[in-house]
Amino acid sequence: MPAPPRLPFPRELPALTAGLSHQTYVHWPYPPDAVRPLLPSGLRPDESDGRAWVSLVALVMRSVHPLGLVPLPRGTFAQTNLRTYVRTRDGRSGVWFLSLDADHPLMPAARAFGIPYHWADLAVRRSPDGRALTYTGRRRARRGRNRPAVPPGYRLTVRAGAPARTPPDLDRWLTARWSSFSHRAGVLWETRIEHPPWRLRGAEVLELRETLTAHAGLPSPGAHALAHMAEPMDRVRLGVARPVGRG
Q1: What is the separation of C-alpha 31 from the centre of its chain, rounded to a whole number of angstroms?
Q2: Cβ neighbours of residue 10 under 8 Å, at least 6 residues apart?
Q3: CA triplet 48, 54, 57: central angle to 5 degrees?
Q4: Residue 171: helix, strand or coil by DSSP?
Q5: Residue 112: strand, helix, or coil
Q6: CA dist., res. 45 & res. 84, Å (int)
Q7: For residue 84, is pLDDT > 90?
């Protein structure tokens, strides 16, 4: 797997550092036209063999430090991302988050920077034999007239498979992403990400019920297409968001 580009540390402090554990990906293919309306101007779906992809990523954030220095109170918490894969007009590739749910009351403050965080009740439980993980989540209900009658949520159980020695091209395409994009004040912003290469395992989905895709505006994904689990990782660093063009 290619190494990520280095962020300009230590000359510039990272926006955030963290460790990640209990990470599971479930990926679905979609027609690009199903994803395109969900993106801001300036981004288009990135395609693999003519298909766009959407991924549900469940994980635990550990030892979260804003600016790489200040520990976040209760800095270990569960998080769930619904994301798709995009390119800019000039060909930069990365991730666009359709939603992020975090079991931490401070993370929704990132919405001020165009990052769609929600406060949610999330849990991760390991089976007695240690091979399966069950993730559950329900977004906390918002106040106001436009709140959904039933907040979106999910339940996912996966069983770990064998380590992947050489990830296939699609596995690498889905997981080796070194930028994420956000949109605020009419401007597209890029956040660079630095971490060691993922150590992936195959995974079998034993149970999956979710309403996150529908709430994001996507048609039902149907049966899961591809799943991975990743070994725990430290030294994940996010850079400061930089403008990359008008959205």
Answers
A1: 20
A2: none
A3: 125
A4: helix
A5: helix
A6: 8
A7: yes
Q: What is the residue-wise DSSP string for 187-233?
A: EEEEEEEE-PPP-EEEEEEEEEEE-HHHHHTPPP--S--EEEEE--E
Start-to-end CA span in the chain (Å): 31
The beta strands (E) that lie in 71-215 are given as 77-88, 93-102, 117-126, 132-139, 153-163, 179-184, 187-194, 200-210
Burial of residue 57, with CB atoms counted within 10 A of its CB: 0-12 exposed, 13-18 middle, 19 or more buried:
buried
Give me the residue label for tokens 């401070």: 106
DSSP state of 48: B
- Which tokens is 165 given? 């020695």
Top mean pLDDT of 59-73, 153-167, 200-214 is at 200-214
Torsion, Cα 57 59 63 67, to 10 degrees, reads: 10
Residue owning tokens 């403050």: 109
Integer Cα distance of 123 and 134 in angstroms: 8
DSSP state of 32: H
Distance CA 231, CA 136 (A): 20
> 198, 220, 216, 218: which is closest to 208 by C-alpha?
220
As beta bridge partners, residue 93 has 87
At residue 68, the pLDDT reads 77
Residue 74 φ then ψ, to 5° = 50, 60
Read off the tokens for 37. Answer: 């309306």
